[in-house]
UniProtKB/TrEMBL annotation, chains A, B:
Protein known as: HTH hxlR-type domain-containing protein
Gene Ontology MF annotations: DNA binding
Keyword Chaperone: no
Keywords recorded for this protein, A-Z: DNA-binding, Transcription, Transcription regulation
InterPro entries associated with the record: HTH_HxlR, WH-like_DNA-bd_sf, WH_DNA-bd_sf
Annotated ranges, domain HTH hxlR-type: 1-94
Taxon lineage: Bacteria, Pseudomonadati, Pseudomonadota, Alphaproteobacteria, Rhodobacterales
Length: 106, 106
DNA sequence: ATCCTAGGTTACCAACGGAAACCACCGGAA
DNA sequence: TTCCGGTGGTTTCCGTTGGTAACCTAGGAT
């Protein structure tokens, strides 16, 4: 169960959808490191678990909008806490990592 | 960067180490679904990133104790928030999943 | 007719993770 | 002595996952 929530792409997608609905290619461009395949798979799973809703909009080239559901917004709270913690502590992690890598290889 | 924190085993290990130090096999038994290989790898990475400390205790069969560092305890806060959210909302996720799976295959 | 864009799906392949075997150390039992 | 058990790992093999890139569908513009 934690495996779905602990999935790195899911966390990122939920974070990106926090401010408001986004289209498929917006997400893809915004997240940056994700492959199209994984983005579709991640969105399918998030939809299945009730975190996001998928809406097909009949524009000229059909566009698809993804949006957090109520449950998704609710999940966003702890997820953003984690994301903000990470941002606030990257420097400390990098420092620890550098110290670890630089220590004598016993 | 989120990839290390978003890793499901890391989240679990940090949660288990929350209350206090644990030995290798205690962790393995407690977590339950983890392979020995992944537990060692996860602990190495957590140690490298400064979240846990590794202490070899010279008992009769040498035992190894893992403990959260100050940074690890700090990370524990948002991680536990996420874990508790999950526990509190498993039912809703399961319901959404059942509804998704049961819906007409269009 | 052909191309382009949006959103996917598929084929192929490299890398990751799990299971289980093996290893090193040490003390005690046979 | 030799064997066994219990620590904390490492290695080998193999199945699954994820990335890359090509292809697909449908509508509009050129």
């Amino acid at each position: 169960m934690l495996s779905r929530i602990g999935d790195k792409w899911s966390v990122l997608v939920v974070s990106y959808l926090g401010p408001g609905p986004m289209r498929f290619n917006e997400l893809k461009k915004g997240i940056g490191g994700i492959s199209q395949k994984m983005l579709t798979a991640t969105l399918r799973n998030l939809e299945r678990d009730g975190f996001v809703s998928r809406t097909v909009i009949p524009t000229r080239p059909v566009s698809v909008e993804y949006e957090l559901t109520q449950l998704g917004h609710c999940l966003l709270v702890p997820v953003q806490a984690l994301a903000q913690w990470t941002i606030a502590n990257i420097a400390r992690i990098d420092a620890a990592r550098a110290a670890y890598d630089a220590r004598p290889p016993e």
